[in-house]
């Protein structure tokens, strides 16, 4: 399931676009938010199909070598361990995954050079070499190879980043989350049954409600929250404050006021971390100070209501 941090990021980006477009059409902006969340989830399936494509490419290479005029012993007797990777076979044979990929037009057929590049990167890793050299054949070992490669290599593949951005601008910054979902799905594989447990888009209905309520209220309260931010930054050069900083703080203030079950400290920590990736290098310190003051004012004014122990 998509993390709440990703949902917060999607809300921030959607609010930023909504304000910058100067539109009054809240419903249209909510549809864009829905689309951006759906696309993040979709990327998990695209990454799943990449594993299958890598195995197919490996098999094609073996077949080409076998059909050479003067094949070597290795050409005629290739190591098929990766080609027959049990985890990949489960992905390839999963009807839910295949139906999703087909229904959303996913796949890598237009990007053979990327598949080749990623396969080359995979086969050059020590993990792959050790995997292929081991006579053992187990589902656990197959899962570990994919988990290690996706986690430690794919997150830093510039060519993959470029292709994903070309495929969908909404996939920008979603790769890490999609890899996490893919790895979680692989972790569900068991020798006791043949299936894979596909993570749901949302952990539960509360997370879905969280995203859309946070966005809607952030839009409706943006002017008022901006006024509070203006008061707290009166000694700052307003033109030097990044608009993204204002949007991040406005959403954080909305969350503090609207969600009684989320501790204030959790909200502050989340948006400070988000600011480290989506705003200027010094924004996190600035945002931390302003949000701390905002929380004090809102609590004193009775605008923050938390229920349960330890929520402040």
Any overview of this molecule?
The chain has 312 residues and is mainly α. Helix content is 68%, strand content 0%. It is built from 15 helices and no strands.
What secondary-structure arrangement, pairings included, does this model have?
Elements: H1 4-21, H2 26-66, H3 73-76, H4 86-92, H5 95-103, H6 112-123, H7 126-133, H8 139-152, H9 158-167, H10 175-187, H11 205-220, H12 222-232, H13 243-258, H14 264-278, H15 283-300
Helix pairs in contact: 1-2, 1-11, 1-13, 2-4, 2-5, 2-6, 2-10, 2-11, 8-10, 11-13, 12-13, 13-14, 13-15, 14-15
What labels describe this entry?
312 residues; mainly alpha; elongated
Q: How far from one another are the termini?
A: 27 Å
Query: Stretches where pLDDT falls below 50 for ≥5 residues?
Result: none
Percent range for β-strand residues: under 5%
Oligomerization category of the chains in this entry: single chain
How would you state the average pLDDT, rounded?
93
Q: How many beta-strand segments?
A: 0
How many DSSP helices?
15
Structural class: mainly alpha
Largest sheet: none
User: What share of the residues lie within helices?
Assistant: 55-70%
Task: Tell me the series of helices and strands, N- to C-terminal.
Answer: HHHHHHHHHHHHHHH
Judging from the principal axes of the Cα atoms, what is the shape? elongated
Radius of gyration: 24 Å
